[in-house]
Specification:
The complex is a heterodimer.
Chain A lengths: L4 E3 L2 E4 L5 E6 L6 E8 L3 E9 L2 E4 L8 E7 L2 E6 L8 E8 L9 E2 L3 E5 L1
Parallel strand pairs in A: 2-11
Antiparallel strand pairs in A: 1-3, 3-8, 4-5, 4-9, 5-6, 7-8, 9-10, 9-11
Chain B lengths: L3 E4 L2 E5 L4 E7 L6 E6 L5 E7 L2 E5 L2 E6 L4 E6 L8 E8 L8 E3 L3 E6 L1
Parallel strand pairs in B: 2-11
Antiparallel strand pairs in B: 1-3, 3-8, 4-5, 4-9, 6-7, 7-8, 9-10, 9-11
The chains are: A mainly beta, B mainly beta.
Chain lengths: 115, 111
């Protein structure tokens, strides 16, 4: 299994630009999570989906952030417009709720720098 | 919403020492996660446990559900164990929830 795949691995963009981060969960997993990691705040939950439906987006910082999961094998996190304070590592994780396992598998992360 | 406290924040030890990292949380949970992150690296799940004790090689994780407390132990520590160890729990307690995280323990094992 390829594990959780995220792209791009690194993104450098200028303030005001739109940024789209992508995630492919492990095949067969039905839950997908977006997390953000910064030095100041550590790891934070942004949003998560179950069976492609957003369950809780209360961690999304503001309206500039949006996430979609159009099908079971793909999700996007979009920031528009981007700001320097959005610089962070964004992790996607997936898990399966069948069998009540709930172990989460993390992707390698996307390191975002907004200048 | 669950809150997670981890201690110590930083720990430096000599190779071979027995290491203990502690984690406490505020809301009852279905399971607790221990994660490992090497500098500049990804996040790896070490354990997910809901009761008692689990062991993988030199790593041991225990949990006391009544006291809302977990510990991660490393026996015969080695420099390759140097990493950040993070405790995480479902943010509202349910197994399928997103996670809320402790601030992590930065562990350095010196040869």
């Amino acid at each position: 299994d390829a594990g959780v795949i995220q792209s791009p691995r690194h993104e450098v963009t200028e303030m005001g630009q739109e940024v789209t981060l992508r995630c492919k969960p492990i095949s067969g997993h039905n839950s997908l999570f977006w997390y953000r990691q910064t030095m100041m705040r550590g790891l934070e939950l942004l949003i998560y989906f179950n069976n492609n439906v957003p369950i809780d987006d209360s961690g999304m910082p503001e309206d500039r952030f949006s996430a979609k999961m159009p099908n079971a094998s793909f999700s996007t996190l979009k920031i528009q417009p981007s700001e320097p304070r959005d610089s962070a590592v964004y992790f996607c994780a997936s898990s399966s709720t069948s069998g009540y396992s709930y172990e989460q598998y993390f992707g390698p992360g996307t390191r975002l720098t907004v200048t | 919403k669950n809150e997670v406290e981890q201690s110590p924040q930083n720990l430096t030890a000599q190779e071979g020492e027995f290491i203990t990292i502690n984690c406490s949380y505020s809301v009852g949970i279905s399971a607790l996660h221990w994660l490992q992150q090497h500098p500049g690296g990804g996040i790896v799940s070490l354990f997910m446990l809901s009761s008692g004790k689990k062991k993988h090689g030199r790593l041991i994780a225990t949990i006391n559900i009544q006291e809302k407390h977990s510990s991660l132990h490393i026996t015969a520590s080695h420099p390759r164990d140097s990493a950040v160890y993070i405790c995480a729990v479902p943010y509202s307690g349910g197994g399928a929830d997103g996670l809320t995280f402790g601030k992590g323990t930065h562990l350095i094992i010196q040869p």
